[in-house]
Design brief:
Radius of gyration: 28 Å
Strand content: 5-15%
Largest sheet: 3 strands, antiparallel
């Protein structure tokens, strides 16, 4: 049928929806299939920059002084389409920076401002992020001017910091170096709720027990950055809210003092917006019409801007001087009684009783009118919770201490997901080493690497001992917040030396040998641990008939116990490791799904995962020496035997337990090997089986060894930012 005839009959000239939507995905047809998409995020195909583009080098060319001045000027350059409160955009920019950074959570290191993900769904359309799309549009001329030398991620984080400076705060510093992503981070689990702001009574709630928030989540509701400003499930009760605040901020890596400082400092400037009817707002950016051009929450029925705008639904400023850094927050909070009221938009808020007229802030647009200040339920928690109250009074009595504490907490909030200080760029990077940065001293490079390898080779350590110890040291790395890894050799320190997954008794025996070699040669213990793993791999490859040198870069340092925050490192403890065929307990999530999560955090692809698991099995690195998945009679040889056996139709694969299978000879039914779900998924999943078949081929032993070495080196060097 010709195009003309098709149109004439009124039929759509294309296959409707086939190019842009897919109503039935694989998971819909086969819900038990393993979804590998988490490993394919940000694979480069969405990145418009050339392969040679290096943001860390480009940002060093930035005119930092000019950028700072442009941002200071922007703060008071009010735009008619979205006017600034009191003629100053500081409050809006701070909220944007805070909401970009405040998604960070310690459990898996995901979230935070490090990727510029506020530009994409779901964050760009979360209810809690209403009207932050306007903040990014206001910043666009600056991004346009500085171009590739300034990422959105850096600009979003920096704008709030300069906003504070422009209002009088002496900030602690700033580090550039955050590189933008180019599509949504679908690998981050934000919760199981099916609707925004669902209460804890929702069947998909993130709460259990009395009020136990599920890991790794930090926010109390789907669509909120941290807590509900109106109270638990929208019901005001400052003491109950204090519980939520304490849990949420702890999962953002903040203690009580930092929590009070951030709450107070965040509300020292700016205002909440709820002077209108929320029902007049249009859809969020992702749900808007084409003509809205990715702007959301548009009010096309009334004025809807300035002091008539609606964002959180609460209405009012927290302090008398909302564009100036001062002690006004504690002055009002502690010296007045407060009562519950409702905003014009119908949201619960607290307002002072019998406040002096001069303590009221000016209307954000009409300087001849003063309005009542307000407090959220979280603000009232700073007054009514006994521990928070003590801190609030301390800050009120010592404003200089409050300013310093806030500046440091703000720096931590905006940099917590950046990793070690070696990644910070720019003239305002503080010289001080902070314990939450996991500091590691510079290591020695002036030693004979070959001599160290020779001592390791003659030490009597087995291949499995060397490889497993190096792996355990490096596997803690998380690309989400750049924490963990082999650099620092923290595997010899508390808490890592005592983690069950590190097999403390075996670890202590191996470390005693490696520490002696480090002492004899001048190499760091961290380097010797990695070198030992490399030696083990080289020996195993040689035994398979493949001669190969594992790449090695010296210079790792040895961290001290004093520079290791034990509580902070506890969250890095592995509860499972499919690469060593181990999990600490039985979990609701399947072992293969946990393997994917660990793999994604380590920054590995599905192919790298496959080759590493197959290699680790034949090297005999299973936890406690278990034989599950060790499909070889040549343990310690870097062979492709795992894949050969997995694809061999002479065997059957029979379940004999919840996570245990017997591999039996098809003819005799005698048991040859045992396996777990993590082993068999490489033969069950169609994508992983394709990789397994590749490595099982008769002509691919060398490729298997080379690919294993490449993936191994990637893991060993993942945390090298020096």
């Amino acid at each position: 049928m010709t195009q003309q005839k098709a149109n004439a009959t009124g039929k759509c000239p294309v296959m409707h929806g086939s190019l842009t939507t897919n109503d039935r995905f694989e998971k819909d047809w086969w819900p038990k299939s393993l979804n590998l998409d988490i490993l394919h995020q940000h694979d480069g195909k969405t990145n418009p920059m050339s392969a040679n583009f290096n943001y860390q080098e480009e940002v060093k060319k930035l005119d930092f002084a000019a950028l700072k001045q442009d941002l200071i000027n922007l703060m008071t350059d009010s735009q008619s389409w979205w006017p600034a409160d009191w003629g100053h955009y500081g409050g809006l920019m701070i909220r944007m920076t805070w909401h970009a950074s405040g998604t960070y959570r310690i459990a898996d290191g995901r979230g935070g401002a490090g990727t510029g993900n506020l530009r994409f769904a779901p964050l760009n359309s979360w209810p809690d992020n209403a009207n932050l799309d306007k903040a990014r549009r206001i910043l666009w001329p600056i991004k346009k001017k500085y171009g590739n030398k300034l990422s959105w991620a850096d600009l979003i984080a920096y704008a709030g910091t300069i906003a504070y400076e422009s209002m009088g705060l002496k900030t602690y510093g700033f580090g550039f170096g955050r590189e933008d992503i180019w599509h949504p981070e679908k690998d981050i689990y934000w919760g199981s709720e099916k609707e925004w702001l669902a209460p804890s009574s929702d069947p998909n709630s993130r709460y259990s027990g009395e009020r136990d928030l599920a890991n790794p989540l930090a926010a109390v509701m789907m669509g909120l950055i941290y807590v509900n400003p109106e109270g638990v499930d929208g019901k005001p009760d400052p003491l109950k809210t204090a519980h939520d605040v304490r849990v949420t901020f702890a999962r953002m890596a903040m203690n009580d003092e930092e929590t009070v400082a951030l709450t107070a400092g965040g509300h020292t400037v700016g205002k909440a917006h709820g002077n209108g009817d929320a029902a007049n707002l249009g859809p969020e950016p992702e749900g808007g019409e084409l003509q809205d051009q990715a702007l959301g929450w548009l009010n096309k029925k009334s004025r809807g801007i300035g002091n008539n705008s609606v964002t959180s639904g609460l209405e009012g400023a927290w302090t008398t001087e909302p564009t100036r850094w001062d002690d006004g927050y504690f002055e009002l909070l502690l010296n007045y009684d407060w009562e519950l009221t409702k905003s014009p938009a119908g949201a619960w808020q607290w307002e002072p009783v019998n406040i002096k007229e001069e303590h009221k802030p000016l209307d954000s647009e009409n300087p001849s009118v003063r309005q009542n200040p307000i407090m959220t339920d979280a603000d009232m928690a700073m007054k009514m919770d006994p521990e928070y109250r003590k801190i609030s009074e301390r800050f009120h009595n010592d404003p200089a201490y409050f300013s310093e504490t806030f500046a440091r907490a703000w720096f931590k909030l905006t940099h917590r997901d950046m990793g070690p200080k070696a990644r910070y760029i720019g003239p305002d990077v503080p010289q001080e080493n902070l314990i939450w940065q996991d500091p590691v001293p510079q290591g020695n490079t002036n030693y004979d690497v070959d001599a160290v390898k020779a001592q390791i080779a003659s030490s009597g350590l087995s291949v499995s001992d060397m490889v497993a110890t190096a792996w355990d040291s490096a596997r803690t790395f998380r690309q989400s917040d750049k924490r963990g890894g082999a650099n620092g050799a923290r595997i010899r320190l508390a808490p890592q030396k005592d983690w069950q997954g590190n097999e403390p008794e075996r670890l202590g025996r191996v470390l005693a040998v490696l520490e002696g070699i480090a002492s004899n040669t001048g190499a760091s213990i961290a380097d010797v641990i990695v070198l030992a793993g490399n030696v083990g791999v080289e020996q195993a490859a040689s035994a398979a008939g493949v001669s190969i040198n594992v790449p090695f870069n010296p210079g790792r340092g040895d961290a001290s116990q004093a520079d290791t925050d034990i509580d902070s490192f506890e969250v890095l403890e592995p509860l499972h490791d499919g690469y060593r065929n181990w999990q600490k307990d039985n979990y609701v999530v399947t072992p293969e799904e946990m393997l994917l999560d660990r793999t994604q955090l380590m920054g590995l692809t599905a192919a790298e995962m496959t080759v590493l698991v197959g290699g680790m099995r034949v090297l005999g690195t299973n936890y406690a020496g278990t034989q599950h998945g060790v499909f070889t009679d040549r343990v310690g040889v870097l062979s492709n035997d795992f894949f050969v056996a997995l694809t061999d139709m002479n065997y059957t694969w029979d379940p004999v337990g919840e996570n245990l299978y017997e591999i039996r000879d098809r003819q005799t039914q005698s048991t040859k090997w045992t396996a777990t779900r993590v082993d068999l998924v490489f033969g069950s999943n169609s994508v992983l089986r394709a990789y397994s078949e590749l490595y099982a081929q008769d002509d691919n032993l060398t490729k298997f060894v080379e690919d294993f070495v490449a993936a191994w080196s990637k893991v060993m060097n993942a945390d090298r930012f020096d």
